[in-house]
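Incident review: delayed structure delivery

Summary: a single-chain prediction request sat in the queue longer than the usual turnaround. Root cause was a stuck worker, restarted by the on-call engineer. No data loss occurred. The affected request and its eventual output are reproduced below so the record is complete for anyone auditing the incident later.

Affected input:
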Amino acid sequence: MRISSLRMITDDVARLVDFYEHVTGLTAAWATPDFAEIATPAFTLAIGGTRTVALFGPGAARPADNHSLIVEFLVDDVDAEYKRLVDRSVDVVAEPTDMPWGNRSLLVRDPDGTLVNLFTPVTEQAIAKWSA
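Output delivered after worker restart:
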């Protein structure tokens, strides 16, 4: 088994897609006005509008109601990403910080409030882990 996608539900698909296109530098593929996907080398970030929730059952998901998930992206230079994102007034939760597990991390919030971690491995152990 492998993860194929992570789906987020939102009231404003275009706004959330715009944010993640900017963060990733990738272009979304739109299936409908209520559904788009951003394919990364590791997984696909799917963004669905609230009208798509009914397909799974009424109330199966609520937009902008996440308090436990952090979407994480491995980046080449977290400090460069910080400078690039701050210029766009992204909501920065924590500036680039060295973490005890060997990554340098930048924590931001997407427009719906979901935490997004951009990180770069900086210790030998972390570099070896993420180079494999």
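Verification: The first strand starts at residue 5 and ends at 10.
Action items: add queue-age alerting; document worker restart procedure.
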